[in-house]
Amino acid sequence: MSSAEVRHVSTTKVRPASCIDEPAGNHRRIDLNPVDLVFLRIAYMQRGFLFSNDKKCIDEKISHLKTSLSHTLDRFFPLAGRLAIEKHEDDNTISVYIDCNFEGVEFIHATADISVEDIVSPTYVPQTLIDPLFSLNGVPNYQGQSHPLLSVQVTELPDGAVFMGCSANHSVCDGTSFWHFINSWSEIARSADNHVSSPPPVFERWFIKETDCPIRLPFSFADKLSAAVSDTTTTEVSPLEGLVEKCFHFTKANITELKARANSQIVSETKQNMVISSLQALLAHVWTAVIRCRSSLNDNYDDSRVHVVCLLMNNRTKLIPPLPETYFGNSLVAGFVTLKEGELIKRGSGVLASLLKEVVNSKNFEKSRSFIESWMEKPFMPGPAGGDAPENFSNMLVARSSHWFNMYGNDFGWGRPIAVKTGRNGKNYGITTVNPGPIEGSVDIEICLPVEVFKAMENDVEFMEAFSS
To answer: Which one of 113, 411, 444, 460 is the catalytic residue?
Structure first.
């Protein structure tokens, strides 16, 4: 099946179970910091779960999800709010904050005439099937002024399976925060008394100095962040023009072998006391194959061509004092590696793995402070396609998400998910999504590329050797 027709049965708003209506203007305010603000023009992040048929009535599932979500929002109440912009007439600036007004999370019940096999069997991720299973496709985060900060779409399939797609505002939370929320929700859904074992989220935003709060942006940003409050339509998302997405499944044995190979190469080449992690070895293996295969398809091979790869990393432990893992907001840092095509192809993935290791080790509080201070002097907000990026970043390979997130442990009362999928938002050339695999110790790498690059990778002996373990 090439596309999915999704029909909305109902749309409701779910509010925190214990919320009390307060007068307008009397709600708690959470000011966004620079790392939150960077995401305002990027689209909502999207993650979804596919659950097999467990014979339970769909109406019972929907009711149970709404009730448990309402109790979870007691702990994660900012998700039930909206973004707001304050204009400062004294210096002609604006600031952006979360208005914790309890307006509610959007909850959609839908149906679709597709099967589990339609979703999990194709070689390439069927975008036209997956996209309609998520709401808020293409909606930028700044439209959280008029759109919910979290939208949940539960789609029932004819074979009794259920797909639950969640779209969350990335200016309000990062991946670590999002999975803290989802893990808490699933635990509450399984509990008889709404119990959750994890510590509560911490909402107080991190700023270098107290005087930085609220962050004042030039008034010119008001146009960039304008959102018609009355507009509740969903933006259409263009297809991945010339690109497809594929998921590579690496078993625990595959990863162990790649890690050992990368570390042995580092020792033989540099004699340095450097230990490559599993993820660094895995990304280096995939990205080296991408660059090598893309080069083999390019008639204009240039061994001096510079390639850029980027890691998006959790920054909580690098700050002084460190933030708790339960910090609910964005605490991310980007690490960039540049290298020449000829060097990478000649020396292999070990050189890229070592550079990834170096960039991870180099991230510290001073670099975070430096980024924030330079951002404060000249604020910037990249667009959905990285519109503010330099020209040589147009084909950048970017890794997001983490194999450490608890995705497959989310049982809402009818078993663990059989698949975890990522929505269209944020996908472009080279976007690499790192997820845990369904079997403990395995890792799934989703990446967007032209189909001819994937076909070259499938015929690349060095790349395919990793799957022989």
So the answer is: 411
